[in-house]
Amino acid sequence: MLSGKVIVVTGAGRGLGRAYARAVADSGAAVVVNDVDADAAGPVVDEIVAAGGRAVAVVAPVGPTETADRLVATAVAEFGRLDALVTNAGVLRDRTVAKMSDDDFDTVVETHLRGTFTCARAAITRFREQGDGGRLVLVGSPAGQRASFGQTNYSAAKAGIVGMTRTLAAETARIGVTVNALVPVALTRMVASIPALTDAVAAVERGEPVPAHLRESGLGTAEDVAPLLVYLLSDAAADVTGQALGVGGDRITVWSHPAVAAEMSREGGWTPEGVAEAFGPQLAPHLQPYAPDAPAGAR
């Protein structure tokens, strides 16, 4: 589906990023494999080349504008053009907010949110120069869609990425660029610290199959996520843009956009007492659950 395409994948040395890079290469694309760790990026390039594909590594941290510009320039210098960019690079600094340092917050936001912005901007600039469209897939997370205990920094960054997706889709539609958020769920080291998933991640790393009940619930391997990514990068998805699409195990999901769930008006405006009087019977029934295990309306 991607024959002749040139695609940049950030954070492609391990886990989901490695699966993405290998999948787009298997589908015919030339790949710029980015990672901050040369010992991770190099073997991915070697795997792709050994399988008959084309790939080159760029070892640099995502976030700075210089890295974003270098990634695009490398794609053009090595393979002649840029067709798509996948912003997968990320780090975790999990702590409850009282224990989260400024550096914990800034490091996660710098890599995930600023890195997505700088890479997307560099790619869009190149797409405009080429004049024939392009694809951006910005990687989100369920943590950006609902509460994720101990991940204030990560949740904020990933929610921002989905918001960025919609705006960039609106800004670039007229030049033939699609922008979508991929919301993956996979049994990788990124979720190994979750007690309920620790054993399952270890089993996957040993090469064991994911149990059917986990696959049915939306949990699988990194390789299970890659087909949706390949589709979004292909010409077949030319009419899909501005969406947040999830995938994991046997399941693909379409996440809803934020929308008004209920509204009220009062002529002349509101007083605090008026809000209190109306809130319970009129608005409270429409409050939304903010976490998977939170009841609707919980405050």
From TrEMBL:
Record keywords: Oxidoreductase
Keyword flag S-adenosyl-L-methionine: no
Ketoreductase domain residues: 5-190
Source taxon at top rank: Bacteria
Pfam families assigned to the protein according to its UniProt record, in alphabetical order: adh_short
Family in the record: Belongs to the short-chain dehydrogenases/reductases (SDR) family.
Listed name of the protein: SDR family NAD(P)-dependent oxidoreductase
